[in-house]
Amino acid sequence: MPFITKQFKFCAAHKYWNDSWNHDKNFRVFGDDIKVHGHNYELDVTIAGPINEKSGFIVDFQDLKQIVTKNVINNLDHSEIQKDIKWFEGKQPSTENLVLFIWENIAPHIEEPAKLHKIKLRETPTIFTEYYGPGE
Fold this sequence. Notes:
Layout: E1 3-14, H1 23-30, E2 37-48, H2 61-76, E3 79-80, H3 81-84, H4 95-106, E4 115-124, E5 127-131
Parallel strand pairs: 1-3
Antiparallel strand pairs: 1-2, 2-4, 4-5
């Protein structure tokens, strides 16, 4: 089965903090990331499925762009994630949690027989998280 990947970009800020810890423990675990700071995220959305004989594509990129923009980019871009996105109440705004949020907001909108195969979110040149969906 072939896979196709489309990349998106957004900018967002966040900070790490655990209310049940004191300042020293938060600083020991999160370092300077206890302060609000931002990233230029790169999001790769990979779709799997059979090739449509009429279009030659697995997925219509215009549809995919609309789904991701409406359900992910418009919510995350220029946000302070842990403060502005209700889903993150009680959760750290880590790339690990971000990929779960992104998956939940894209997967239900992909029309069969195509399916969401993988989310890859790059936070920095040396940090990224990949997610293949629940149960993977």
